[in-house]
Amino acid sequence: MSNTKRKRDLIQKMEPKIKKSIRHIPWQYREDVEQEIKMKVMESIDKVNTYDVPSFFEYTAQENDKKAGISKKKANTKEKYEESRVHNEY
User: Fold this and answer.
1) Separation CA 45–CA 50 (nearest Å)
2) What share of the chain in percent tops pLDDT 70?
């Protein structure tokens, strides 16, 4: 999906919220404020990279791998500690 299409789709989705928000602004400034909000939204899309976000299943797999790695490290540390105790006793 092109960047322009993403911007257009997001603005369309946000249109009701933008309209609702500018109701509280004096009528002579509404059009300008609406345009400014849309410009800020479009600028922010360029700053956000949505391609690097993992899916739910990828994220849970990564977290499980991290937890398994921590458990392995704890087990290795415990084994090394016990080995050093045995060597120090002699």
Assistant:
1) 9
2) 71
Q: Do residues 3 and 45 lie in contact, with contact meaning Cβ atoms separated by under 8 Å?
A: yes
Q: Which residue has the higher pLDDT, 65 or 49?
A: 65
Q: Are 45 and 26 in contact (CB under 8 A)?
A: no
Separation between Cα atoms, residue 16 and residue 8, nearest integer Å: 14
For the stretch 10-51, pLDDT in tens is 889 999 999 999 999 999 999 999 999 999 988 887 777 666
- Cβ atoms of residues 51 and 82 within 8 Å: no
Q: What is the mean pLDDT of residues 7-12?
A: 87
Q: Can you give the length of the chain in residues?
A: 90
Look up tokens 């092109």; give the residue.
Answer: 2
Q: CA 33, CA 22: separation in Å to the nearest integer?
A: 7
Per-residue b or e along 34-43, where b marks 16 or more CB atoms closer than 10 Å to that residue's CB: beebbeeebe
